[in-house]
Amino acid sequence: MPIAGSYDILVVGAGPAGSSAARAAAQKGAAVLMVDRRQRIGVPVQCAEFVPRAISRYVNFSSKCIAQTVETMITHLPDQQSYEMKSPGFMLDRSLFDKELAASAVLSGAKISMGTRAVKFSQEEVGIERGGKHEWVRAKVIIGADGVRSSVAQWAGLPPGRTTIALQYEVVLPHPQDHVDIYFHMDYEGGYAWFFPKGKTANVGIGVVSQRTSSLPNLMECFLNRLIDLKKMSRIEIIGKTGGAIPCEKPRQTVFGNIMLAGDAAGQAHPITGAGILNAVIGGEMAGRIAAESLAKGDLNHLWQYETEWREAFGSSLSYGAFKRDFLEENWNKPEIDFESLIRKTWVGFKEYYKDRKNGK
Q1: Are 18 and 152 in contact (CB under 8 A)?
Q2: Is the pTM of this model over 0.90?
Q3: Domains present along the chain, CATH in parentheses
Q4: CA 163, 101, 167 angle in degrees (round to 5)?
Q5: What is the DSSP string of 9-29?
Q6: What is the pLDDT of residues 245-287, one digit of tens each?
């Protein structure tokens, strides 16, 4: 399919943010092209796949995308104490979820081109590479939804964002489980480990500050050995491995001339939990809708409405999370700090996390 030519909007990246943006813009009548460097949508999965149940208010997806439902989250501290909180959500099959969102964008009128890299930017033109060929695409608005290492964010002049780094294995789950587990340990610096069940398998992972990336394989081996006892498993069978960077920063500027950023490219994941799918869906929809409105009005200044809307929707949650992350990282290795107390103040599963919010932070 030839794609060189002119479009109203070019969306770079076909994940939840990009597909939500492309769908919303196409529904408003804009001519939309969405490109993605991968050959297949949804793979490789670089995600823990847990989303709050509230996501179904913002996007339609079939029950086939839900590996299982979850009711509660249990947080485990090193002092052997565990704390349970209600956390209704879904464990997704991310590859299916992403495919359905992309299909919805196409059915709304967007065009899509896989195996296509956006490599150059010049005002209203973007150079793309596809199948060894170079082409230019004209677009009045470019929406960068190309993940944490976003090329579009670089074109906008943004430096690389602050991240944590995660390693995750998919393992066979011998017994059904209806809750997710979070584990804290001094060795998981600036992060945590997780055990997220999804039917017959579970996602098992650890995230740490980027300076500790090299320690992840050893940490994971120790964690898997612990899980054999904790989960009463006779052995652990690994059927998949993945990993990647997760944004963990205070909100960034997301509008630069005719460029907009959404999802991980905009740093819209929660700085403490790393959760980003719901914000990607919401932010992507806003970006696509407002981009189409701007073009209909003939006024690119209207793009700033996106900055206002997403900050009203979830900006304060990200800002507060970034404040808590700063506190967490500053105090993690201080010998005089009580570690359990530090986690209570900085993890969303504890009421202490929200205390400073009442004090006007």
Answers
A1: no
A2: yes
A3: 5-46+95-161+249-321 (3.50.50.60), 69-90+163-247 (3.30.9.10)
A4: 30
A5: EEEE--SHHHHHHHHHHHHTT
A6: 999 999 999 999 999 999 999 999 999 999 999 999 999 999 9
